[in-house]
Design brief:
2 strands, mainly alpha
């Protein structure tokens, strides 16, 4: 049997520290787009207490759930990891996550999504980006179909 010990992921960062950092990033992104813990937990089909434990770092987030959280928060999964570019041997392709999400989508929708993401990534103001995400989320919930 294989057991994970409380070992170091990289110097000065233990698994517990990483769990806390991931939880903080989940909470931060959730708040940026204006979701309550109850709303996000409902989207994930879990009780809000479990989400609370993930956000506090007292319960490790399984990879499959982190993927679901990233999708629910409309953010790349890499957002939840503290990546130091100096330690990374190569820089990840910036659009790889977008291409993965587009999947089998073709035609006009795929082109529009790519244009939107490309323009969005050029916005430096974090608050402006959060406002845009919030607006798009509200429009997607709107009963009016344009």
């Amino acid at each position: 049997m294989f057991y994970l010990q409380k070992s170091k992921v990289r110097p000065n960062v233990t698994y517990n520290d990483l769990d806390v950092k991931i939880g903080e990033r989940i909470r931060g992104q959730r708040k940026r787009i204006g979701l309550s813990q109850k709303e996000l937990a409902s989207r994930l089909d879990i009780v809000f207490q479990q989400l609370q434990k993930h956000e506090n770092g007292t319960s490790r987030v399984p990879a499959s759930r982190l993927y679901e959280i990233a999708r629910a928060l409309n953010t790349p999964i890499s957002h939840f990891f503290d990546v130091d570019e100096r330690e990374s041997p190569r820089k990840a392709a910036p659009f790889s996550e977008v291409y993965a999400m587009l999947g089998a989508q073709k035609g006009k929708l795929a082109k529009q999504v790519l244009e939107l993401v490309t323009a969005f990534m050029k916005i430096k103001d974090e608050e402006a980006r959060a406002d845009i995400v919030s607006l798009v989320a509200k429009l997607s919930k709107s009963k009016l179909r344009r």
